[in-house]
Amino acid sequence: MITYLAKRMAASALILIGVTMVTFALAFLMPADPVRQIAGRNATPETVESIRHQLGLDRPVPMQYATYLGHLAQGDLGHSYIQKTDVGQLIMSRLPATLLLMLGAIFFELAIGIPLGTFAAARRGKADRAIMIFAFAGVSTPQFVVGLVLLYLLAYLAGWFPMSGYGGLSHLILPALTLGIGGGGWYARILRSSLVEVLRQDYIRTARAKGLSERTIVVVHGLRNALLPIVAMIGLDIGTFMGGAVVVESVYGWPGIGQLAWQAIQRIDIPIIMGVTLVAAVAIVLGNLIADLVTPLIDPRIRLR
Amino acid sequence: MGEAWQRFRRDRLAVGALGVILLLVAVALGAPWLAPYDPSQQFFDGLTLEGAPLPPSARFWLGTDLLGRDLLSRLIFGARTSLMIGVAANTAAVALGALVGVIAGYLQGPVGFTLMRLTDLMIAFPALLLAIALAAIFAPSLWIVAMVIALVNWVQVARIVYTETRGLAARDYIEATRALGAAWPRVVFRHILPHLMPTLLVWGTLGIATTVLLEATLSFLGIGVRPPTPSWGGIIFESQSYFLTAPWLVFCPGAAILLLALSFNLVGDALRDAFDPTGRGRGG
Amino acid sequence: MRSLKRAALAALALTGALIMSPAFADTPPKQGGAAVVTFKDDLATLDPAIGYDWQNWSIIKSIFSGLMDYKAGTTELVPDLAESYTISDDGLTYTFKLRPNLKFHNGRAVTSADVKYSIERAVNPKTQCPGAGYFSMIKGYDDEAAGKTTELSGIATPDPSTVVFTLTSPNATFLHIMAINFAFVVPKEEVEKYGADFGHHPVGTGAFKFGEWELGQKLVLERNKDYHRPGVPYLDQITFEFGQEPTVALLRLKKGEVDILGDGIPPAQFLEITNDPANKDLYVRGEQMHTGYVTLNVKVKPFDDLKVRQAVNMAINKKRIVQIINGRAEVANQVLPPSLPGYDKDFQGYPYDPAKAKALLAEAGHPDGFSTELYATDTDPQPRIAQAIQQDLAAVGIKADIKSLSGPAVIEAGGTEGGAPMVWSGGLAWIADFPDPSDFYTVILGCAGAVKGGWNWSWYCNPEIDKRAAAADAMVSASVQAQRAEAWKGVFDDVMKDAPWVPIMNEVRYTMHSDRLGGDPILFIEPIHIPVNYEYIYAKDAQ
Fold it and tell me: CB-side exposure of C388: number of CA atoms within 13 Å?
């Protein structure tokens, strides 16, 4: 186990360096000059060149990358070109919002997915089909449509929730629910397959023969063993949410790092682009690691490589 | 294969979904004849005096959008955009993923190792951000958007194909062929790839749901296909400011996207079950 | 008895008259109270040398001050930190006398050395000030901008309350430059203490002091009790909230949670708001120093042909574009917006005449039109406007492919020679930084701007007009200002004869404030303190 973890850590570190390299290259391929943005519209060519030199953007790209890695090793993510703030500080200021949204989303995914999946596996037949359609519908609707529909119905028409912004529970519910509906569908499907498999096992038949109620069998014995794939999914989800909530944040005005990244890409604010991509990649790698560690527990045939 | 088709046919819901897909394809192909108006035509009287879109009426069955264009026509032509990009992007993604996966899985060694590490690297990227960044670099057009989406989606297929290939390559008769000195392209294409067909078919269908959604999302963010090409996500992007007063501008395209993606998901899932009814041994 | 009763009656009548009179009908400004302002986008920085976006421009004006300012609600220059100034006869020397007892928010007295320091800081390339180029008329600018020195030889401080500027040539815009944010005075010790973070800990001389700032969420400003203008600001506190969608902000304003919509009334709700008589005194319409235009790249065929450019001018239906943005603009037929001196109200411009446009194109050798590209940013409503223009062009045979890209990408394409044949300026340009026609010429139409990375996206360069523009800017003294306006009028009229642009519209903004805020309506949509002049608004319910 320890060797496996060590190998994975080493591989992860290399992958993350690879991510920084590719992101750096992509940032420089953007068809716009970040220096001109900073220098403004009245700048003389001398000022532009001077700023370029200050930021080190006149050096060859590989050298700039090496400098970036050097700073990174010391924990310095650099300074935003546009906002002149320390990138680490900017990300930290938005991280709580993203983490909160992530927690809320996972909560709803489980709250929707587990009951639906359990019901479908236990009942089969028509109810099973109907639930699975719901699950698929949740997965098949783009987040921004779910978001706008919820906004319109629950916030605007009904007035039950505030329409946007960051704040307490009432502000969190709609965005988290939007993300949860999409993911909940997946969770329902996975749980259903897993639970169907578990309920076929001999020991379940034994439990039935012993006269235990169906509910106890399903919930206590069945679920307990069927929940493992869900844990793996949560691991993967962590990674997805860290980088992918741009759309939901945009619809609800939720100040997370997704919005930060989106604006940075539009404005070619390279330090922020690097910082956010790195943070998201770390989350994805960690999440995948958790999922991979859990998977052998589900299917013993798959051994840790 | 025939067996699988039988199993598929028994799933009435999936057959229904397949019918919906065919219907949408027909709509897309027949768009010039089905659409009541030119989707790009902005009518002078298609907006109120203050520039608000018109609600549904006898003249414009679903009303107009914020440029005075017939919404129904734009929806119909939008099916073309979604289908074309969805299919093109996914085909490219599956092709690329299969190629990488099968080569890595068969050859193993340094080539296989490098390819799989490359795959790991791609997985570590936040997908949407990567798509946004790529779209920013290559000024969007229909094919560029499809290519960007393919670049983001090929990895999943590669991983699955890799695992399967490894399993297949270990079989005796493959070993034997290898021992006889057959060149690897021949072995791969003649002996291994055919066995991968079911998986590729499943992903070829399921993946379209993902690519359609990704295209809609990119258009919603404003970095999708070039205007005035109609795109369901793009219609929502342009109509957002009037969303509360003209919600059908969001709901209609939204329902269309949902219908298309849902149908592909149902068909793909049924295919998966049809090829492997025990639910074991195939990814996911 | 009778006289007493009469006196009482008279007093009653007088009081009654007073109560009825206008003086009481409008509550006079009261000291105190707070206001909440919303913005959609976050604030980047509050450093006056760097801040250059919609949100922070007016906030910075409230925290800092410069030698000059504008009378509230107008574009009239008045001295601010300076008590008085004199201009030498040759227009090369400006002498400012500072007011006595000026203090920074940290308590220290303001001296002439602070003024010199602040402007040198703006010019210093290390600061990355987007407005550094505005100070190019000060002697010694070239050396400091090139990084050879950190001082401006053209600024002298003979005593702590006198600043003397020496220019390299007379420049009529100099006083405007002294009123612009980039010239605002900052205390050296605070800048050095915070370094690059000064933008998050601003210390100035303005009406409001920095209170607290939660990044991405809200900013709070407190009243500066030692502000040198007596009686203002009226409000004790202003809170700015970010990340607020305009539609949401409007709903909150109706509920009483928000006082001013920083981004204005959202287009979809516009009719609903303006038609409701209850809102009559609450919404405000304000003109901006803005022109939206399409640039025609004279270095790219076929736009090198004057007839083609004129044809494009006549092909575009500007009224419909204004309709598409819900009437938030007025059709423009020339370069300058109506609020600037030099605007020619008798100018005819090019009428909307597609038939004539087609004829012109045929004369120019393009009877079947031609293909080209139109660049625009990808933020709503710019792609929509681009599509409207595209349709108008198609009607005369011009097939324009729309390239909808991010702002910086469009700017880059426009600033590359032969890069962008047509650029729609919406969302990018051009709002004047100061109320002077010169700001509408040099960078975007002058030869100096027609360089790589420049903002003259039509690459138009007419040396003869350049000379006339420079001559107009040399007319410094107050007595020749009317002639100066005439000179500029002539310049822009002749530019339009060459038609390097298609001026489309001048934006008009509408905003709304809550009932409890009072003040001259113009303060809420001021052209200088875009969008709000926070010093003079007040709360009617202050205790």
Answer: 28
